[in-house]
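User: I'm putting together notes for a lab meeting next week and I want to include a structural view of one of the chains we've been expressing. I don't have a solved structure, so I'd like a prediction I can at least talk through. The sequence is below, exactly as it appears in our construct file.
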Amino acid sequence: MLAFYLNGLSRILHPERNNQTAAERILGNLSRSNLGTQHSETTKSSAIDSFSVTQNISELLSPACGMTEEEKSSYMAKIMAKLKSGKRLTAEEMRFLQAENPQLYQQAARVQSMRDSLEARLSSCSSREEAQQTYADALTHIGGDDPMKEYIVAAYDDAMKDFQKSDAYRSLPETEEDAKEKDKETGNNN
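Assistant: Thanks for the context. Below is the predicted structure for the 190-residue chain, given as structure tokens.
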């Protein structure tokens, strides 16, 4: 009884020692698992134990491992703000979305892919005028009823701003006519 009291007192004095990280909790669950032990148990309990191990490993590998609900909400808000501003999501942010909100992950992946496509088209432009036209064309091809329209427009805007800051854009002639003149001078006949 005295040990119990001291243990309780220790928990009150040092509450941080009682807080296990998600990894410690999962490893503790796995160590109590019957998987791999030789017991004459039914197949049913073995299947449940196997599911528990799989679930614990999946939780451990999740990007949200160790996050509280408040931290998950905060991280999701950060990702949503980044999407709304058109910024590119990191691989870690995409994995988080994939684990926590698969539907939003698919939409975000589509937005990122559309941005990549625009960036590739911009990089092959031969004049600033053509780059502006490519950007305008991309905007007109966004469906009016697309649920991610706001995010796609923001991604396109950000991609265009990034391109305009690049050396490749600065080295482009202003118009198509200037580009043709430049090609004639250098001997390139496109």
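A couple of points you could mention at the meeting. The chain has a mean pLDDT of 78. The chain is about 75% helix and 0% strand.

User: Perfect, that's what I needed.
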